[in-house]
Amino acid sequence: MVFYPEDADGSMSQLWHGSKWLNDMPDDMATPMIIHPVTGEHYFVGEICQCKDGSLFIPTRWFTKKDQGMWAKGMSVTETEVIS
Predict the structure, then answer these.
(1) d(Cα 49, Cα 69) in Å, to the nearest integer?
(2) Which phi and psi angles does 50 have, rounded to 5°?
(3) Cβ(35)–Cβ(69) below 8 Å
(4) C-alpha distance across the termini of the chain, in Å
(5) Which residues, 6+ apart, have CB-to-CB distance to 31 below 8 Å?
(6) CA dist 26 to 23, 30, 32, 84, Å?
């Protein structure tokens, strides 16, 4: 069974290669979590995480890329001054 959409770089030979799974399906209907294969850490959509380069990111959708492993769509987090 395949639980994550795949960005197949334009090719579509399987149902999970389609843009409906990757782009059109509501985020709350997609797979909500991944488990890091080495550390065993759980990463959830909607929760802030730190990338390898130290930047912060909030994933909204997990997907695979052909021959490149797991990826995420989401939002970058930037620090801003609070003006009151």
Answers:
(1) 18
(2) -105, 130
(3) no
(4) 51
(5) 3, 4, 62
(6) 8, 7, 11, 35
